[in-house]
Every structure is written in structure tokens, then in C-alpha cells.
Design goal:
alpha/beta, FAD/NAD(P)-binding domain, D-Amino Acid Oxidase, Chain A, domain 2, 3 domains, 8-stranded mixed β-sheet, 7-stranded mixed β-sheet, 36% helix, 27% strand
Length: 406
């Protein structure tokens, strides 16, 4: 029976980061990846904040960065556009395949072992260790580890096997890379309201002539009369019936990806010999659906705590609970605030969203958004907006919002 100190299930950005940090702290580490290739299939928009790239310990590079963006055009249902200009690069449009492979290579450089085509189908605790049943290239194998880190995505098998439950909700997402004429490739476009029930749609420019157009919907927010409507149907409507998008859409699809976006972290992200990180733990920003920054923050802690558990000869739930305490201390409040923002915005009707976004379209508020807007820490902007020193106009605009999120 092959034995490791730490086994990480999942070789995406979060799994690679957790494995690398476990190895850097002295643990003999193995990564298991269900698929035959790193970074494929893709299940992400590929828009990463500058902080997310930095948190993964890499510098932006032409090897994986396709475009950079500095702001967003927000389109409510009434067609009026709210321009938000960050005035400097805020995010990168990346090739997730190449980005994921960069992070996996960094893990291998720290002597992490990697098994591809390795599907975990069972974990049980025996003699104080985790016994992991794997189907590798069609053949069954059994591994042992002192700690298993589940970084296996939104439908995490490891979390389920550990009895840690499910995330609060999962949004249905779909994205197509299409010929699309951007008005300004330095800006993403966001579409809110009933055109994207419960969340929003986006157009992320790869360049002036190609964009990734996608949508995520909350099934709970879909009208009862449209319960048979899928995210694919909503995307097709967006491409062909939204006048703004349809006038710029060149027809056809260069690529199509689908996936789920988990919102709301697990109540508990550890058990005997097991830690859960990233999408598997629901460590995703509820305001944007992005999980690389938050997941990388948690993955580093998971890798370090797992290695320390090995070094101390203590892989008990009590010892591993340090991971849960540390990641919640670092980003827990931000995720909780993000969830309240999500619930508030998703509960607004088209007219309310039109009014809210229209009220924000003045120089004072736009300047505040430019100065304090942060993709990874939206609470900073919210606090600035609601500060008593702000104008009465701002306080009036956000009065209902304040009651919902504070």
C-alpha cells in the first residue's frame, strides 16, 4: 500500500496551491486529478483579480494572460449603462488551462507527486490514517495518508465522504467564447435583473473581437412559469434577444463551458484527517462567483496546517480545526458580507435595480467606487458608501441596502 503524508484531491489552482504549501512545509505530498489533463475541462470565466493572481504566488505573464481590464459597464434592464472605471488594471483575462498548468508545475517543483486519471471513490479512517480508494487508469489502487485535503470542486466527493454536508446553494453557470465586437476591451460588461435571474450575466473581452459571454442563474429566482428554462436557454436568449449583445455578436461559438458556482461556505471544513478547501468548501465570493483569490488564501492555510499535523503526529479533528479558525478569521467576515449583498441584490425587481443603478450614476458616487472598489473586498466600498461623512444623497440611495447587509 502506497503511503503519503498528505494527499490532495483535485489539481486545479486550489489543489495545486494546497499541495505546494504542504510540500514546502515538509510533507510528502500527492495530488490526485480525476481528469487526464490539468486545466481541462475548463469551468471558470477566466477573469482573475490582480490580487488573485498574486495570491497564487505568480506574476502576470503573457504565457497565460490574454487581456487586462480596468473597469466594468453595468447594464440594468432599462438599458442605461453605469460606467465604472478603476483607472488601472483590476483584473486579468487568462487562459485557465495555461494558468492551472503553471500552478501545477510549481507544485511539482516542490516534489509533489501527481497522478492523472485518478478518481477517488472511497475514504475511510483506519489505524489513525485515511485509507483512500482510487481508480487509476481503470485499475483500483489503495493509498494511505495522514491528512487528505479535498479540493475537488463544487460537487466535492471528499466533503460528502467526510460527512461535512453541502454548501448553501449552487448557481447554474454557462459560458461561450464567441465573436463579439467590444466597445472597449479594457472593460467587462455586466447584465443584471430578470435577464439573469438571481445573479448576473457577463461579457469578458479576450480582445476587441472575441469575448466570453456567460451567465449564472439561481434556480430559486427563476419564475415558476419558466422552471423548465435552463442556463443554456437564458444564454441563447441573451445572445440573440438582448439588443446590446445581439448587435455585437458575430454568431457561432468558439468554445462552451458549463459548471456550478457554490455560494455559502460549509459550516465546518475539517474532520478527522480531512480538510476541505476552495469551491469544495464554498469559499467563493458571493458577489462575483470568483473563487481563486479566496480559495488560494485557504489552500495555503490548509497545506501548512496539514504538514504541521503530520510533523506533530496529530491528525485529529481537534488539531485540524486550526485551519477552520484561521481561514474564517482571514476571509470569513468578507464572505458573510458578500452573502448578505447577494441576497439583497437578488431580491430586487427590475424597477428597483434600475432605480438603484441609476442613482449611482453621478460623479460623487462613481468617484467613491473608483477609489474604494475592490473585487475581493466589497465591504470596503460598502463601508465608505455608508459612512456618515458621505452626502445625504448617498445615504438615501443605500438606506435600504444598509438595513439588509449591516
Amino acid at each position: 500500500m502506497t503511503e503519503y503524508d498528505v494527499i490532495v484531491v483535485g489539481a486545479g489552482p486550489i489543489g495545486s496551491t494546497a499541495a505546494r504549501y504542504a510540500a514546502m512545509h515538509g510533507a510528502r505530498t500527492l495530488m490526485l486529478e480525476d481528469h487526464a489533463f490539468i486545466g481541462s475541462p475548463v469551468g471558470c470565466t477566466g477573469l482573475l483579480s490582480t490580487r488573485a493572481v498574486g495570491e497564487c504566488d505568480v506574476e502576470p505573464s503573457e504565457d497565460f494572460v490574454l487581456n487586462s481590464v480596468r473597469g466594468a459597464f453595468v447594464h440594468p434592464m432599462n438599458g442605461e449603462c453605469l460606467p465604472i472605471d478603476g483607472r488601472k488594471t483590476k483584473a486579468y483575462v487568462v487562459s485557465r488551462k495555461l494558468f492551472d498548468r503553471r500552478l501545477a508545475a510549481m507544485a511539482l517543483e516542490e516534489d509533489v507527486d501527481l497522478w492523472l486519471n485518478a478518481r477517488v471513490n472511497g475514504i475511510e479512517r483506519a489505524d489513525g490514517k485515511q485509507r483512500v480508494s482510487v481508480i487509476r487508469k481503470g485499475m483500483p489502487e489503495t493509498l494511505e495518508a495522514k491528512v487528505v485535503i479535498g479540493a475537488d470542486g463544487v460537487r466535492s466527493k471528499v466533503a460528502k465522504m467526510a460527512g461535512l454536508g453541502k454548501v448553501s446553494k449552487v448557481l447554474s453557470g454557462i459560458q461561450a467564447e464567441v465573436p463579439y465586437r467590444s466597445d472597449n476591451a479594457d472593460f467587462v460588461e455586466l447584465f443584471v435583473g430578470s435577464q439573469a435571474p438571481g445573479f448576473f450575466a457577463w461579457a469578458v473581452p479576450v480582445n476587441e473581437n472575441i469575448s466570453r459571454i456567460g451567465i449564472a442563474i439561481d434556480p430559486v429566482s427563476v419564475p415558476k412559469s419558466q422552471k423548465d428554462v435552463t442556463a443554456y436557454h437564458v444564454l441563447e436568449n441573451l445572445l440573440t434577444k438582448n439588443s446590446h449583445i445581439a448587435s455585437r455578436y458575430g454568431g457561432g461559438k468558439l468554445d462552451l463551458v458549463m459548471g456550478g458556482i457554490p455560494l455559502g461556505p460549509l459550516e465546518k471544513t475539517y474532520s478527522e484527517g480531512i480538510l476541505i478547501a476552495g469551491d469544495a468548501a464554498g469559499q467563493v465570493k458571493p458577489t462575483s462567483g470568483g473563487g481563486i483569490y479566496t480559495g488560494a488564501v485557504c489552500a495555503k492555510i490548509a497545506g501548512e496546517v496539514a504538514a504541521r499535523a503530520v510533523a506533530n503526529g496529530d491528525n485529529s479533528a481537534n488539531f485540524l480545526s486550526e485551519y477552520d479558525r484561521r481561514w474564517r478569521a482571514k476571509i470569513g467576515k468578507e464572505l458573510a458580507m458578500g452573502m448578505r449583498i447577494h441576497r439583497f441584490v437578488s431580491g430586487l425587481g427590475d424597477n428597483e435595480l434600475n432605480e438603484l443603478i441609476g442613482s449611482m450614476n453621478n460623479l460623487t458616487i462613481l468617484d467613491t467606487i473608483t477609489r474604494y472598489g475592490d473585487m475581493d473586498h466589497p465591504s470596503i466600498l460598502i463601508k465608505k458608501m455608508l459612512h456618515p461623512s458621505r452626502s445625504m444623497h448617498m445615504l438615501k440611495v443605500f438606506r435600504a441596502f444598509a438595513k439588509a447587509v449591516i
